[in-house]
Amino acid sequence: MNRWKTLLVVFTLCVLLLPRWAEAKKLNVVTATTDLAALVQEVGGDKIQVESIAKGYQDPHFVEAKPSFLLKLRQADLLIVVGLQLEIGWLPPLVNQSGNARIQVGASGYLDASQFAEILDIPTGQVTRAMGDVHPLGNPHYWLDPDNGRRIAKGFAGKLAELDPPNSAYYQERFQDFDKRLTAAEQKWDSEMKAYRGRKVVTYHNSFPNFAKHFGLNVIGYVEPRPGIPPTPSHSIELIGLMKRENCKLVLVEPYFDLKTPQAIARETGGQVVQYLPSVGGEKDVTDYFKLFDYDIGLLTKAFQATQ
Amino acid sequence: MKSLWAVLILGLLPVKLFAQQTAPPPPAGSSDSALEQHVRELEERIIALEGQVRMLKASAAQPAPAQPTPAQPAVAAQSPGIQLQESAGQAAGVPQPVTSPAAPATQAEALAAAAQQGPNLGGAGGSAAKALNPDISVIGDFIGAMGGNSEQNTVSLQPIPAFQMHESEVGLQSIIDPYARGDFFISFGEEGVNLEEGYITFTALPGSFVAKVGKMRSVFGKVNTMHNHVLPWVDRPLVTNNLVGGEDGINDAGFSIERILPAPKGIFLEATGQVFRGDSADVFQSSQRSDVSAVAHLRGYRDLNESTNLDLGVSYARGHNDLGTGFLTHLYGVDATLRWKPLRRSIYHSFVGRSEFIWSDRQQLPATQKSFGYYASADYQLARRWFVGGRFDHSDRSRNDGLTDKGGSVTLTYWPSEFSQLRGQYRFTRYANNIDANELFLQLIFSLGAHGAHPF
What we know:
The complex is a heterodimer.
Chain A: H1 2-24, E1 27-31, H2 34-44, E2 48-52, H3 67-75, E3 78-81, H4 91-97, E4 110-112, H5 146-163, H6 168-194, E5 200-203, H7 209-215, E6 218-222, H8 233-246, E7 250-252, H9 260-269, E8 272-274, H10 289-307
Parallel strand pairs in A: 1-2, 1-3, 3-4, 5-6, 5-7, 7-8
Chain B: H1 2-22, H2 30-61, H3 72-93, H4 96-99, H5 102-116, H6 126-131, E1 135-148, E2 163-177, E3 180-188, E4 193-202, E5 209-217, H7 238-243, E6 251-261, E7 267-276, E8 293-303, E9 308-320, E10 328-340, E11 350-362, E12 369-383, E13 386-397, E14 400-417, E15 420-430, E16 436-449
Antiparallel strand pairs in B: 1-2, 1-16, 2-3, 3-4, 4-5, 5-6, 6-7, 7-8, 8-9, 9-10, 10-11, 11-12, 12-13, 13-14, 14-15, 15-16
């Protein structure tokens, strides 16, 4: 009985409050990472206010669940997460403590962006931690494929329209515009990278498969012996051997990893370390989704030219 | 649900067949690019469908989404299914001429497969039911000790034996319904079991309140809230042992309400009020129903910059002690934590400095004992897997404020991975009666399964 009463009260409150949100203020969107923030900003324009919890130069697996993030989550109308257990170590306690019913898992203000994207590396068979820090649902670094960026943005346009129906045409229009600009940029990126299709690279962590797939690069190994496990001397020696055999010259490293081992590997193989950016905001001037690819492709093409 | 899967599979199969069949060189010319366009569209559809399937699987593991009205959850739970059937149907409609002969066979197969899976148990069997299981974890805590400690007088300080499987903590955690989640931490000693914590958290209360009901570690200070495996030391500080009940601490059945308070921009202010039965280690003891204990905590937090933050708290606890209903113990605490973690190198370096000051007013005969104690500690992360730390201890005893114990520790911690930890600690203690103890502890902590993150 009581439950029904509570529900009735909650419902009435929602009915009273919902239209007011829609009219009164911008939608308050909080995202787990800067890439999702950049994409939702493309679609939401000036009708939304966006903030990301993790910074672009931070390892998104290991964010501290600081109370200051609770202040942001408390006000949020929409929380967008990368999903696939990327944030499992820090986001759930924040969501629980936020006291914000709108963004609890399963509520309309909780959005898992992975549902829109093409997900790679989904493990088949049994997953154990002997494999390291594997993500049993697939590789969560999926935003580095422009096609996925488009799919995610399309999903965001739908979600924003659902939460803010009066502006749904606006969001749709912004998405169309983004789509057009992205298609044009993609043609440019594709042509820039065309000469290097099939080139072999090594990355520090397995955060590159979607980028590699889109631009036809071949990731032959990782500096980490297993995901999340720091490099070991024996694995590095193996990797050096592999790179020499395969004539692979580039070691790609995320900005939050130590450069010592990658540099030693590059020295041994006569190659180069490229500190690429996995996320928007990794460098000061990489402020949106387009600049992220401009930056990384600039680095890569230069490095490919220099090493061959 | 099962028929839905069947439809889905049926829908997807022809799409895939079609995609494969059209991939080899078709007639050249304008139809070429049209076909390419078509395949692209189909690919987009498959990716969207895959995403929906993942979400469906995930939502099977969780209860229906939170919706404001009782009628809506049912609709919401159905609508993804309806969408799926629709889009699967559309997809199947396109390549019909090519694959229609194959369809009946696959349909029969799907039906047979569905039949093989046995009767619908209403969520009581099969993988869907397993998906509803809570996250289960076990954390083992093994301690070895060397050196002598002849002090026997302290109430709660039990000497650690040479080898001890100190604790096996089983965690069971899950979302209960759209309004609450549940957490159980059951602590197995070498003999005997203890419910360390078991509570429900109401996450969707009006007015931004968060409530917990059950048995829980109270929010008196910092160390009292921490499970053994998240402590930066093998033991607990002297002040915790002497004044706040040691390892078990203030840990009792009751309820808790917390809320984030309005504060100037950038400051996080949170108040918590808790009421318990009144039984906690040797600190509180209830001899009748009205002997409840209460704990209050106010926490202020501020980011000084993106890598440094300061966390301050004041706590108060009140309860009846072991002398009976007429005798109260009041505890007052102040805690401060300074954390530093550079974001670009967050996995390699960090620093935590922490201190707690605790005052205890214990009513007893012939006179109330006013004891005071504190600890101050610092922990620095040298490298990705290495931590070094130190702690200074000073505390009166709660039953005799004239006796003061002092001590200090240094620790070295190594993490083979995120899921195991090896720690050595050297501890020196000078007890009030001038007994000195030099001890060396070795601790191995290992974690199985999905253990939810602990609050910051």
